[in-house]
Write a structure and sequence with these properties.
Layout (H helix, E strand, L loop, with lengths): L10 E5 L4 E4 L5 H13 L5 E5 H15 L2
Antiparallel strand pairs: 1-2, 1-3
Bound molecules: zinc ion.
The site of zinc ion has 5 residues, from loops.
Length: 68
């Protein structure tokens, strides 16, 4: 299994302000660094750690709301 593969058991940090996300359950150095960068970039924003399956629901909701 590739580390970059998101599966339904993955957890992501989601920024509700920017609508961006980053995987959090990682153990390789590069991804931890990019997670640290993500957290710095979104400091002060409304972020939350959620399940990847919740993220999929959020993204689906955003896509459908764009049509309105
Ligand atoms: Zn943000």
């Amino acid at each position: 299994m590739s580390l970059s593969d998101l599966n339904l058991e993955s957890r992501v940090r989601y920024c509700f302000t920017c609508r961006e996300h980053h995987i959090v359950n990682v153990n390789d150095y590069k991804t931890i660094q990019s997670l640290n960068f993500f957290e710095k970039e979104h400091r002060g924003h409304r972020t939350q750690v959620i399940d990847y399956k919740e993220l999929k629901i959020i993204l689906a909701t955003q896509q459908s709301s764009k049509k309105w």
